Structures are given as structure tokens and as C-alpha cells.
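BUG: 3D viewer hangs when loading the predicted structure for this chain

Environment: internal workstation, default settings.
Expected: structure renders.
Actual: progress bar stalls at 90%.

Input used:
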Amino acid sequence: LVSAPASGVGGRRFKSSRPDHNRSNILNERESGLKIFKKAVYNNKKKHLLLFCFFGIIFFSCLFLSQCTYKQACTPKSPARRVIDLPQYHILKRGETLWRVSKRYGVPLEDIIRYNNIDDVSNIPAGKRIYLPRKTEYSMERSPSFIWPLKGTITRGFKNEGPIHHSGIDISSPIGTPIVSTASGRVIYDGDKMSGYGNMIIIKHNEEFSSVYAHNRVNLVKAGERVEKGQIIAEVGVSGRSTGAHLHFEIRKNKKPVDPLLYLPNL
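C-alpha cells produced before the viewer hung:
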């Protein structure tokens, strides 16, 4: 007996296409599964990254707050400043300087010198009574209301231009005529040490304005005294460089002379 040949041409056996089809399906399933896995991992990474950032912000915020609290707790508090009750006068001790007095009481050195009419700060005897000016001792207007220091004739006006300057006005009046304070304030200088001015008085009215009275026959107030507007402070004289009996009167704004006629009332 002869066996029948296998199906196909020339007795060749054809392989079925089913296994290839199954293999492609398996590969597709693997690829799709891999994609799903990658997507899941990616989504998990995003979630983990968000959680990491969230907890990181909380961690560093807590760390910052703890550092601030630690610094506040460890920083030593500055001791309260000792407030010294400012006396009216200070008795200068041996070896003590005005600079030390100024620092002790918190009073500017230049104010101590002016109020006490001190010419040489290096030659002050021990035991000298030093007046200590207080800012709160007097309450003054920012722009004082000035009055005329005396009645008389203006013989020379104010001039701050050109080669010849005149820092105030000259008011002619007989010798001995009373001179009054042009506004309330405190005497910061009385003496005759200023060249050419003779007997002179300077009154500080506030932090901005002061007034000057020169060539006086006699000064009736002393440095450190409080004076009121219209109070008699001196008498007309001819002291210093003067060609006749008159008052040299100045108004100074921020320590610079200004024309007094701009501030005095009309006669």
C-alpha cells in the first residue's frame, strides 16, 4: 500500500498561520501592558513629586519658624536705659570736663558753653556751678511774634550784599534808654568778649530764631535766665565800636542774620 501524500503541492506540508497570529496578539498585549505600567508609574511619580513638594514646604516652614523663635529666645534683651533726673546745676569736680558733663546728662556741649558764657573750656576751675539747660523748660512758638526792642530812629539798615556787610539794624536812642526783649526766650550769652559788639546779649527764642542786642551800657540779665517778651534786659550805651548811642539789633534764623524789618511790626 502506498500512503497518501500530505496535502499541498508536491507533497509539501503548509504551516498554519494561527501560531503567528497568536504571537502578534501576545506582543500587542505585552506592549499595551507595558504602556499601562509605565503610565501607572508616571502617575505615581507625579503624585509622589507633589507629595514631596508639599511636605518639603511644610518642613522648611517649620524649620524657619523654629529658627526665628530660637533667635528671639537667645538674643539678650538690651537693658533699660537709666534716666537721670536732670538737675538745674552741676558742680564741676576736680579733673572733670564739660564733655563728661554733657555725656552724663545728655545736654549738648555747645549749649552748656553758651548758657554758661564760657570762653575757655580748658580752664574751668573745680567747684564751678554749671547751669544745665533743658529743652522742656520752655515752650516756644516756631515763629515768634517779635516786637521792637525800643523806640528810636533807624540810622543804619541791614545789608548782606557787596563788600560791606551789616548784619542788623542800628536804632539811635539816648544813653540809658531801656532795651526790652523782642520775644520770650532764654539768655544764652551776655558779655563783652565779641569783638566790636561791646556789651552784648543773645536770646534764644526757639530752635530756629534768636536775637542780638549790642553796644549796651549795661546788661541786666545773665546767661541761663528766662526772659519774657517786653522785659527790660539792658540799657542803650556806646560800648564796643560805636560812633554814638544806639542799639545794634539782629534777628538770626538758624544762626544766620536776616533783615529784622521782615519780622518786626510796622511802626
